[in-house]
Amino acid sequence: MIGRLNHVAIAVPDLASASAQYRQTLGATLSKPMNLPEHGVTVVFVELPGTKIELISPLGEGSPIARFLARNPAGGVHHICFEVPDIGAAAAVLAAKGARILGDGRPKIGAHGNPVLFLHPKDFSGTLIELEQVPDQPTRN
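User: That's the sequence. What structure does it adopt?
Assistant: C-alpha coordinates below.
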Protein backbone atom coordinates (compact mmCIF):
# COMPACT_ATOMS: atom_id res chain seq x y z
CA MET A 1 0.00 0.00 0.00
CA ILE A 2 2.67 2.55 0.91
CA GLY A 3 5.10 3.90 -1.61
CA ARG A 4 8.41 5.57 -1.12
CA LEU A 5 9.44 7.61 1.90
CA ASN A 6 8.61 11.20 0.99
CA HIS A 7 10.16 12.91 4.02
CA VAL A 8 11.05 12.79 7.69
CA ALA A 9 9.75 15.81 9.60
CA ILE A 10 11.78 17.34 12.42
CA ALA A 11 10.15 19.88 14.73
CA VAL A 12 12.54 22.73 15.53
CA PRO A 13 12.17 25.61 17.99
CA ASP A 14 14.08 28.04 15.72
CA LEU A 15 13.59 27.48 12.00
CA ALA A 16 16.21 30.02 10.90
CA SER A 17 18.87 28.51 13.16
CA ALA A 18 18.05 24.93 12.13
CA SER A 19 18.07 25.91 8.45
CA ALA A 20 21.45 27.60 8.83
CA GLN A 21 22.86 24.54 10.57
CA TYR A 22 21.79 22.21 7.74
CA ARG A 23 23.02 24.65 5.07
CA GLN A 24 26.32 25.71 6.69
CA THR A 25 27.35 22.58 8.58
CA LEU A 26 26.04 19.88 6.25
CA GLY A 27 26.14 21.79 2.97
CA ALA A 28 22.48 21.04 2.29
CA THR A 29 20.24 22.69 -0.27
CA LEU A 30 17.07 24.07 1.33
CA SER A 31 13.76 25.36 0.08
CA LYS A 32 12.46 28.76 1.06
CA PRO A 33 10.27 28.82 4.18
CA MET A 34 6.58 28.17 3.48
CA ASN A 35 3.79 29.15 5.84
CA LEU A 36 0.98 26.59 5.97
CA PRO A 37 -1.73 28.26 8.07
CA GLU A 38 -4.17 25.35 7.67
CA HIS A 39 -1.60 23.11 9.40
CA GLY A 40 -0.30 25.76 11.80
CA VAL A 41 3.31 25.39 10.67
CA THR A 42 6.13 26.98 8.72
CA VAL A 43 8.26 24.46 6.82
CA VAL A 44 11.63 24.34 5.10
CA PHE A 45 12.62 21.28 3.07
CA VAL A 46 16.17 19.95 3.08
CA GLU A 47 16.55 18.46 -0.39
CA LEU A 48 18.21 15.04 -0.57
CA PRO A 49 18.56 12.49 -3.38
CA GLY A 50 15.27 10.57 -3.46
CA THR A 51 13.71 12.13 -0.32
CA LYS A 52 13.61 15.19 1.92
CA ILE A 53 13.85 16.30 5.53
CA GLU A 54 11.10 18.71 6.54
CA LEU A 55 12.06 21.21 9.22
CA ILE A 56 8.82 22.36 10.88
CA SER A 57 8.21 25.20 13.25
CA PRO A 58 5.02 26.52 14.87
CA LEU A 59 2.96 29.13 13.07
CA GLY A 60 0.97 30.57 15.94
CA GLU A 61 0.37 29.38 19.48
CA GLY A 62 -2.41 26.94 18.53
CA SER A 63 0.00 24.98 16.34
CA PRO A 64 0.33 21.24 17.00
CA ILE A 65 4.08 21.80 16.68
CA ALA A 66 3.95 24.32 19.55
CA ARG A 67 2.43 21.57 21.72
CA PHE A 68 5.09 19.10 20.55
CA LEU A 69 7.88 21.58 21.37
CA ALA A 70 6.36 22.25 24.80
CA ARG A 71 6.97 18.54 25.54
CA ASN A 72 10.27 18.42 23.59
CA PRO A 73 11.90 21.88 23.89
CA ALA A 74 14.97 20.95 21.84
CA GLY A 75 12.79 19.58 19.02
CA GLY A 76 13.00 16.16 17.44
CA VAL A 77 11.50 13.79 14.91
CA HIS A 78 7.81 14.63 14.58
CA HIS A 79 6.53 12.33 11.80
CA ILE A 80 7.42 10.32 8.73
CA CYS A 81 5.59 10.68 5.42
CA PHE A 82 4.89 7.92 2.93
CA GLU A 83 3.55 8.36 -0.57
CA VAL A 84 0.35 6.64 -1.69
CA PRO A 85 -1.20 6.72 -5.17
CA ASP A 86 -4.79 7.22 -3.90
CA ILE A 87 -5.26 8.72 -0.45
CA GLY A 88 -8.99 7.93 -0.32
CA ALA A 89 -8.41 4.26 -1.05
CA ALA A 90 -5.51 4.11 1.42
CA ALA A 91 -7.63 5.74 4.14
CA ALA A 92 -10.48 3.28 3.56
CA VAL A 93 -8.18 0.24 3.77
CA LEU A 94 -6.42 1.56 6.87
CA ALA A 95 -9.68 2.44 8.65
CA ALA A 96 -11.03 -1.04 7.86
CA LYS A 97 -7.90 -2.47 9.51
CA GLY A 98 -8.45 -0.35 12.62
CA ALA A 99 -5.98 2.49 12.01
CA ARG A 100 -7.22 5.85 13.29
CA ILE A 101 -7.11 8.83 10.96
CA LEU A 102 -6.54 12.09 12.81
CA GLY A 103 -8.69 15.20 12.48
CA ASP A 104 -11.99 14.95 10.68
CA GLY A 105 -10.73 12.12 8.45
CA ARG A 106 -10.71 14.26 5.33
CA PRO A 107 -7.45 15.05 3.52
CA LYS A 108 -5.97 18.54 3.69
CA ILE A 109 -3.61 20.02 1.15
CA GLY A 110 0.00 19.68 2.29
CA ALA A 111 3.20 21.59 1.58
CA HIS A 112 3.66 19.98 -1.85
CA GLY A 113 0.12 20.87 -2.96
CA ASN A 114 -1.06 17.27 -2.59
CA PRO A 115 -3.72 15.77 -0.28
CA VAL A 116 -2.37 14.50 3.07
CA LEU A 117 -3.72 12.60 6.08
CA PHE A 118 -2.18 11.74 9.43
CA LEU A 119 -2.50 8.41 11.24
CA HIS A 120 -2.58 8.11 15.02
CA PRO A 121 0.88 7.37 16.47
CA LYS A 122 -0.52 4.84 18.95
CA ASP A 123 -1.43 2.64 15.98
CA PHE A 124 2.16 2.67 14.62
CA SER A 125 4.55 2.03 17.50
CA GLY A 126 4.43 5.63 18.71
CA THR A 127 5.20 7.15 15.31
CA LEU A 128 2.97 9.76 13.69
CA ILE A 129 2.51 8.76 10.06
CA GLU A 130 1.61 11.16 7.26
CA LEU A 131 0.28 9.84 3.97
CA GLU A 132 0.65 12.04 0.90
CA GLN A 133 -1.14 11.32 -2.35
CA VAL A 134 1.43 11.30 -5.13
CA PRO A 135 -0.05 9.80 -8.29
CA ASP A 136 2.00 7.52 -10.49
CA GLN A 137 4.32 6.36 -7.69
CA PRO A 138 5.13 2.67 -7.38
CA THR A 139 3.69 1.04 -4.26
CA ARG A 140 5.02 -1.77 -2.11
CA ASN A 141 2.73 -4.74 -1.37
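The two ends are 6 Å apart (CA to CA).
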